Amino acid sequence: MNFQKLKSEAISLGLLVLAICAFKSTFVMNYTVPTGSMKPTIEPGDKLIVNKMAYDFRVPFTKFRLFEYAKPERGDVIVFECPYDPSITFVKRLIGKPGDLLEVQNGFIKINGEALKISVQDQDELIKILYDGGLYTETLGDRSYTVRRVPVKMNIPSVGVRIPEGQYFAMGDNRDESADSRSWGFVPKENIFGKAKFIYFSFEWPKFRWDRVGITF
User: Fold this and answer.
1) Of 46, 111, 124, 182, which has the highest C-beta tally within 10 A?
2) Order of strands across the sheet with 159-162?
3) Where are the beta strands (DSSP E) in 100-191?
4) Distance between CA 26 and CA 51 in Å, rounded?
5) pTM for this model (two decimals)
6) 97: number of Cβ within 10 Å
7) What is the distance between the alpha carbons of residues 20 and 17, in angstroms, rounded to a whole number?
8) 22: left (phi over 0), alpha (psi -120 to 50) or beta
9) What is the structure's pLDDT at 145?
10) Would you say residue 217 lies in a domain?
């Protein structure tokens, strides 16, 4: 193989790799979930397809937004750059958006003075879930999802805050074992990569979890 042909093939391969990277940067990305902060909705080892054009169109490899399609909404499962460490990517549920008055106490949420509805109404049953651990359904707007509570809680403070313009508040469905906006603050709009759409693969050593493939959010 002569040098000119080798150079041509190297350039072609480089352009192909660049095109693939640009596509992933702008249109869609895959994300492997490393922790249990979104259990039981999303498990460690789940691989997600993320729509990077759910909210806006950006210049490839940058945060520069050319135009906006839609705004992130409460209840969306978002994938975003960690506000305090750009090398970390998080997946959480968007709870509060700009202008919201948000209150979180003992894992229970009020938005603009209205408590989110949960499936457990009996106080004795709720106390048992908080004491022993368990699940209940929480409703945010037109979305319902499962919240997990555990008896041993992280030291996450209560929150009472008005969310500033251009900022969002994110929390894990694994309410007591998620480090999220309650502890490290708001998510800037420009940090949001996109909206998680579905699980395309799931693996937990030593088995594949085929029953999780195709779960949507």
Assistant:
1) 46
2) 114-115, 108-111, 101-105, 159-162
3) 101-105, 108-111, 114-115, 117-118, 134-140, 143-149, 159-162, 167-171, 187-188
4) 9
5) 0.89
6) 18
7) 5
8) alpha
9) 98
10) no
How far is 132 from 127, CA to CA, in rounded Å?
8
Which among 89, 49, 112 is positioned nearest to 187, based on CA atoms? Answer: 89
Tell me phi and psi for residue 181, to 5 degrees. -60, -20
The answer to whether 180 and 159 have CB atoms below 8 angstroms apart is no
In a domain, 171, yes or no: yes
Q: At 106, which CATH number?
A: 2.10.109.10
Q: How many angstroms separate the CA atoms of 134 and 73, rounded?
A: 27
In which domain, by residue range, is 103 found? 3-212
Each residue of 182-209: pLDDT tens digit?
Answer: 999 999 999 999 999 999 999 999 999 9
* Residue at 102 is within a domain: yes
- For the chain, the domain total comes to 1
For 2-31, give the DSSP string.
Answer: -HHHHHHHHHHHHHHHHHHHHHHHHTEEEE
Query: Which residues participate in catalysis according to the annotation?
Result: 37, 92
| 28-65 residue pLDDT tens | 999 999 999 999 999 999 999 999 999 998 887 688 88
